[in-house]
Amino acid sequence: ECLQQWGDGIIALSAGTRGTLGILVAQLAAQGRSCATKIDLAKLDREDPVVQALESHIADMRQWFGAGNYYVELIDNGLHEQKNLNPLLVAAASHFGLPLVASCNAHYLHAEDAEAHTILLGAKNELTMPDMRDRARGLRFHLLNNDEMLQTFAAWPEALANTKTIAAQCNVAIEMGKYYLPKFPLDLGET
């Protein structure tokens, strides 16, 4: 309801592998409706519940955010799941006439902060350092610089260009030195 009422003028991204679009496209791939790099969306059974959910989701996004304001988000942190899904998301975007956008799922600012992040994840999940190092090998969760973004998404220049397009449409002024934390009124004795 909120999106229907307030979605106009908002730019929405599909959220990569964990968003509704990514989940539905992955379900189609799991049903054998795709090869490694594409889904033949033109041959899909319109009665298939996954196809219906996909079409309904895209129709909702277009209605709520307006034509051209729902972007298919490509993310590549080195995860196998992302590398497999990105070409399928590109095929879905092409089939449905949706724009692409390159994105960076950053958990920390600099690449050299990876070990600290790994240690924190290990502590949180009660894993040993060898377990965490094996899991983190080859992954990049730092804020990618321009060269890294260009290299990572070279196959999809439209996605890179749309990243700049979205940035140009955003008009945000943040006064430095001022806190913008929400206030949550609590009852006496609660924290």
Structure description:
47% of the residues lie in helices and 6% in strands. It has helices at residues 2-6, 20-30, 49-65, 80-96, 114-125, 129-136, 146-152, 157-169; strands spanning 12-13, 70-75, 100-103. Helix 2 packs antiparallel against helix 3 (49-65) and helix 2 (20-30) packs across helix 4. The mean pLDDT is 88.
Number of strands: 3
Rg value? 20 Å
Structural class: mainly alpha
- Shape estimate: globular
Low-confidence region ranges: none
**Share of helix, binned:** 40-55%
Mean pLDDT: 88
Quaternary structure annotation: single chain
Total number of helices: 8
Biggest pleated sheet: 3 strands, parallel
Q: Could you tell me how far the N terminus lies from the C terminus, measured between alpha carbons in angstroms?
A: 31 Å
Helix-strand blueprint:
Layout: H1 2-6, E1 12-13, H2 20-30, H3 49-65, E2 70-75, H4 80-96, E3 100-103, H5 114-125, H6 129-136, H7 146-152, H8 157-169
Parallel strand pairs: 1-2, 2-3
What is the gist of this entry?
The protein is mainly alpha-helical. The protein has helices spanning 2-6, 20-30, 49-65, 80-96, 114-125, 129-136, 146-152, 157-169, and strands at 12-13, 70-75, 100-103.
Key structural traits:
8 helices, single chain, 3 strands, 191 residues, mainly alpha, 6% strand, 3-stranded parallel sheet
